[in-house]
């Protein structure tokens, strides 16, 4: 399992449903020239490319974008944590709002997946966040509390899991919470239970070269989960270099 305490910050590239062999070779040609010793870089390509990215990448870790709740058996189309571990995957995003929304993923399913990941020594990056409607009705903390309590298993701790706070309304929209709102939500998450006090908590949602430094400078923010901007390799590299 990756020793999270070796790193001061984390930059997770969530490629979502994007990529090709050509894209990957150009991307890694640029990224391989950089070495960020204290900054942990995780690339999450679509699963058919996991091995290819892993073989080509020199200094980054590779993460999956999702995994199955099932260990093995008659589950067509699924990819188990056991298989991810077998091919050397070190991180896996779970509970991303796109999976919660389009694939009806429940907190219970996220908890199951997280458990299996931990058992297989893969670090889950557990995503939580409120919708715009929930934010506008002042329910952000209530939603974060519920998602944390229902999707983070007992066995999760600061060494084997990461949390990503991603307001649903900020993903892919170019909108972000204010710096104070991000700080407040991260502080709130740490206080839900004392075991979260030293968790690595990433912010995600419209992070780009213009806002990444300010966001990463926030005291309770340990890095970023980046979608759109992570597809542009020059921007992604600049985000990592400029961030604290
Ligand atoms: P975005 O996506 O950076 O494009 O907003 C973030 C995410 O979905 O993880």
How would you characterize the overall build of this protein?
The protein has an 8-stranded parallel β-barrel, surrounded by 4 helices. With 244 residues, the chain is α/β, with parallel strands linked by helices. It has helices at 21-31, 50-56, 81-86, 97-102, 107-119, 132-136, 140-151, 179-192, 212-217, 233-242; strands at residues 9-14, 39-44, 61-64, 91-94, 123-128, 162-165, 200-204, 223-226. The two termini are 24 Å apart. The protein has one domain (4-70, 78-242): Aldolase class I (TIM Barrel), CATH 3.20.20. 2-phosphoglycolic acid (PGA) binds at residues 14, 166, 171-172, 204-207, 225-229.
The CATH architecture can be named as Alpha-Beta Barrel
Radius of gyration: 17 Å
**Main sheet properties:** 8 strands, parallel, barrel
Read across the widest sheet, the strand sequence of neighbours is 1-2-3-4-5-6-7-8
Order of helices and strands: EHEHEHEHHEHHEHEHEH
Tell me the fraction of residues in β-strands, as a range: 15-25%
What CATH first level would be assigned? Alpha Beta
**CATH-assigned fold name:** TIM Barrel
Measure the end-to-end span.
24 Å
Count of individual helical segments: 10
Count of discrete domains: 1
Give the tally of β-strands: 8
Poorly predicted ranges: none
Shape: globular
The CATH superfamily label reads Aldolase class I
Helix-strand category: alpha/beta
List the bound ligands: 2-phosphoglycolic acid
Helix content: 25-40%
Task: Report mean pLDDT, rounded to a whole number.
Answer: 97
